[in-house]
Automatic annotation (TrEMBL):
Coiled coil: none annotated. Keywords: Methyltransferase, Transferase. It comes from the Bacteria. One of its GO terms (biological process) is methylation. It comes from Micromonospora lupini str. Lupac 08. Pfam families: Methyltransf_25. This is Methyltransferase type 12.
Length: 269
C-alpha cells in the first residue's frame, strides 16, 4: 500500500513504509478509541454533534473537510462514514499516529505532515479553502498566543459560510467547584478501570506502540519530535475560546455541545 503524504507542495511516497499486512489498522484504531474513551465517555456523541454542525452548512453537498491535529484519523473516518463522497485532508505531526491513520484511511484521505505550532503549516495543505475544519481534544497543547493566531489562520482556510468546530476540555467559568468535582469523579472512575485492566492508560498505550515492530521506529521519531513530551496542557474556560474566535474575525461564534467540563465551540466564517 502506498499512502499519499504531502509536505509543502511536494507529493512523496508513504510515511508509513509498510504493507497493510504489517500493521492491523482496525485493531490499533479500536485500541486508541478505547484508551480515549476512558477520558471521554461521551466521545462519540461529541463527534456526532460536530458532524451535525458540518451538515448544517453544506446544503446537501459533499464537504471538503480538514481534520486538524487528526491523529489516528478518528474524525476523518467518521466523516467518511457519514459523508462517503467527502474530500478529507488530515493534518498531524506525530509519525506513529499518522501511520495508523494512513493505513486506516487507505487512500480515502490526503495525509499531511505539518506542525501547527508554526504559521507555515498551511503551505502543506493540498487546497486553499475548506467547507469545514474539525478538531477534538488536541489544541490544548498549544500556548495561548499560538492558539489565538491559529484561530485567525483557520478563518482564512475556510470558505465564506464555512465552519470550524473545536471540542476540548473547556470548563464553564461559572461552575468552578462543580467542575472540580466532576473532574475528580471522572479521574476516580478512570483509575478504577485502569486498575481492573478494562482499558489501557495513555502511557500504557504508548508502551504497546513502542513494542510493536512496525510502530516502534515511528514512536522513536515521535520522541525525537517531542523530547520532553508535549507542552503542558492549557485548558482555558469556554469564554476564552469564544472571545479568541470573535477576535479572529468569525461572524458567528458559540457553543454547540457541552458535557461536564468539556465543550465544543463552533465558529462560522
Amino acid at each position: 500500500m502506498c499512502n499519499k503524504v504531502w509536505t509543502g507542495a511536494v507529493q512523496v511516497t508513504s510515511l508509513i513504509g509498510m504493507s497493510p499486512y504489517t500493521l492491523d489498522p482496525s485493531a490499533w484504531q479500536e485500541s486508541w478509541d478505547r484508551q480515549q474513551e476512558a477520558y471521554l465517555p461521551d466521545r462519540e456523541h461529541r463527534l456526532a454533534t460536530m458532524l451535525d454542525a458540518v451538515d448544517a452548512v453544506l446544503d446537501g453537498r459533499p464537504p471538503r473537510l480538514l481534520d486538524l491535529a487528526g491523529g489516528t484519523g478518528t474524525i476523518s473516518l467518521r466523516t467518511l462514514a457519514r459523508f462517503p463522497d467527502a474530500e478529507v485532508t488530515l493534518v498531524d505531526l506525530d509519525p506513529a499516529l499518522l501511520a495508523i491513520a494512513g493505513a486506516s484511511l487507505a487512500g480515502r484521505a490526503t495525509i499531511v505532515t505539518a506542525d501547527l505550532a508554526t504559521a507555515g503549516w498551511r503551505s502543506a495543505l493540498p487546497h486553499s479553502e475548506y467547507d469545514a475544519v474539525l478538531t477534538a481534544t488536541a489544541l490544548h497543547w498549544l500556548p495561548a498566543d499560538r492558539l489565538r493566531a491559529l484561530y485567525a489562520e483557520l478563518r482564512d482556510v475556510l470558505r465564506p459560510g464555512g465552519i470550524f468546530v473545536n471540542a476540548d476540555h473547556m470548563p464553564d467559568d461559572t461552575l468552578p467547584e462543580l467542575t472540580k468535582r466532576l473532574l475528580d469523579r471522572s479521574r476516580d472512575r478512570r483509575n478504577a478501570r485502569y486498575a481492573a485492566g478494562a482499558v489501557l492508560s495513555w502511557s500504557d498505550w504508548w508502551e504497546r506502540a513502542a513494542a510493536d515492530p512496525t510502530l516502534a521506529p515511528l514512536v522513536a521519531q515521535r520522541h525525537a519530535i517531542y523530547p520532553t513530551g508535549h507542552s503542558p496542557e492549557w485548558n482555558p474556560p469556554v469564554s476564552w475560546h469564544l472571545a479568541a474566535l470573535t477576535e479572529a474575525g468569525f461572524g458567528e461564534v458559540g457553543t454547540v455541545w457541552r458535557g461536564g467540563p468539556d465543550a465544543a465551540v463552533a465558529a462560522v466564517r
